[in-house]
Amino acid sequence: MWTSSAPLSNPIEDNYVKKDAVFIREFERTDHVEVRRIFCEGIMERVPHTAYRGILHQTQTQFLFALLTITCFVVTKSFALTCCVPFILMAVRYYYSSKVIRNYLDWALNADLADIEEYYMKPTGSCFWVAVLEGQVVGMVAAQGREDDNTVELRRMSVDSRFRGKGIAKVLGRRVLEFAMLNNYAAVVLGTTAVKMAAHKLYESLGFRRTSGCEDYTLRGMSRSPLERLFFQIRYQHYRLQLREE
Ligand SMILES: CC(C)(COP(=O)(O)OP(=O)(O)OC[C@H]1O[C@@H](n2cnc3c(N)ncnc32)[C@H](O)[C@@H]1OP(=O)(O)O)[C@@H](O)C(=O)NCCC(=O)NCCS
């Protein structure tokens, strides 16, 4: 189904669009709108996952919500009202997930994704690639070199939802690994707040190992108000793939 352009391959070959094949090429200015669309879609689908699935990993929040539900019954003695409490609490979680994730999205679109050429294409040690299928951009990934610890950070991995499950993210990930090896970096690292298994399985299938995690991460766009802290928590996990000994 797909092919990956070889590292340091001929740029003319890189721009050749083979029918019915996905290939990876470097970002071009005209990809800007599609890249932002795919990124927004990938981020916004996290709202329900973070609000609903996320609670499965948060025992303190589960305990607190159960306590609030029981307290409602003790105070009101109303079975009907008590049944509503979990739904109300989950609706508030959804509201805060949506608020924080939208703030994060606004920040990202105005940070590195505002000018991909300037941020990723000009500095040495960084790059941004898109996956193209029949002339259409269907996925993206970035690599950002970090000279202080000689690692490359894999960032902004996202695939258009209509083209998932076809191995596109895996080819994008391999492109980053090739880039890191060619540039003599010692390891590729990444951090993710993804709740869905897809992202974690992807990184594990590429050979990454989970190194550490933070259960109560402060995402860009969070205000850390007491209500937000009560209704929004997000887990951040670090992954690393060692390429060579330092
Ligand atoms: C995560 C994401 C990039 C995967 O893209 P994709 O093109 O569908 O992934 P691939 O088809 O290349 O699959 C790669 C691996 O991931 C795993 N995987 C993919 N989708 C999965 C799913 N829904 N459930 C479980 N595992 C899944 C597979 O195990 C596969 O490995 P295998 O080939 O060894 O079986 C895509 O779901 C996405 O864009 N999500 C939204 C944005 C996001 O969360 N990005 C990650 C940011 S850290």
Proportion of residues in extended strands: 15-25%
Kindly report the spatial arrangement of strands forming the biggest sheet.
1-2-3-4-5-7-6
Instruction: Kindly provide the name of the CATH class.
Output: Alpha Beta
List the bound ligands. Answer: coenzyme A
First-residue to last-residue Cα separation: 37 Å
Main sheet, how many strands, which sense, barrel?
Answer: 7 strands, mixed
- CATH homologous superfamily, by name? Gcn5-related N-acetyltransferase (GNAT)
Please give the count of helices: 9
The oligomeric state is: single chain
Structure, described:
The structure is a single chain. The protein is an alpha+beta fold and 246 residues long. It has one domain: Aminopeptidase (3-Layer(aba) Sandwich), CATH 3.40.630.30. 45% of the residues lie in helices and 21% in strands. It is built from nine helices and seven strands. The longest helix has 32 residues, at 79-110. The protein is elongated, with a radius of gyration of 21 Å. Mean pLDDT is 91; it is low at 1-19. Residues 42, 157-159, 164-170, 192, 194, 197-199, 201-202, 205 line the site of coenzyme A.
Short description:
By secondary structure, this protein is α+β, with helices and mostly antiparallel strands. 45% of the residues lie in helices and 21% in strands. The relative contact order is 0.16.
Properties at a glance:
binds coenzyme A, Aminopeptidase, 9 helices, seven-stranded mixed beta sheet, alpha+beta, disordered N terminus, 246 residues, 21% strand
